[in-house]
Amino acid sequence: MRWTKEQEGFLKVNYSNKGAKYCAENLNRKRPAVVARANKLGLKVNQIVINKILSETRVNWENNREYDSYNVNPNQFLKIETPEVSYLLGLIWADGHVILSNNEAGTPIVKHNAIEEDNEYFLPIFKSTGEWNSFTTINEKAIGNKPISTNWTSNRVIGEFLIEHDYKNKDMSPYKILNKIPDKLKHYFFRGFFDGDGSISVGLSQNGSMYRSIAFSSSRDQDWVFIADMLDELNINYKIRTLTDERGESSQVNFYNKYDIIKFFNYINKTNDYDTLGLKRKYDKFIFLKERII
Question: What predicted TM-score, i.e. pTM, was given to this entire model?
Fold first, then answer.
């Protein structure tokens, strides 16, 4: 089919800014024929248009992918049914984040950071849900100068799900995601959060007396209502305070009573047995305390 002057005029007006697909659809021609004619006329598609087309193509492809084709199947996060996923959601709330990649499609990337020695425990839990990527770096400016491991996956479905549930604004309380977790699995979320943003100090002083404390730490503006509600439910006495040091302001939830600490341990662990779902060093401190007061 020969090209008319009107058709060529349409190409000259629209090809650069709207692309070959648009022109082919409006001229009722095959896309390769439109590209060939545009090339003959010396027309090129604007780079911004190319990027937009690639972005739309990428997004459409991601939105239509089968979930089992992802390295990490989104279904297990959309419908939370396992201790591992509940634990990871708490851990990511503490030490993870969601960013948008710098490609035109803005694909969400879910990341989690931890010191390398702790990641020996975390990575197998991530891997139980799929093929997460992981790498380790050294930040010479970080306190302690310890190697930092990053676990990550590029996943639009999981990323957008987490963003919808406030994982880009974690100063809020995580009730959107907690409401998605069955009651029988909620304690795993708090165990994951404690392994990320919690600390336990237990030991014997030089005079033989025991010291102990639990702390949850976060930014100054952290809404602690989800921790307060959990501790109130367990009848644990606690304090919320704001701290200031050379790094700036932060906030903490603290409690010190040995029986309260054991109540918390019994809630997040349920049994004395270490089940590999979390940090062994924190578990061991609970057991150290528990064995000395029972």
Answer: 0.78
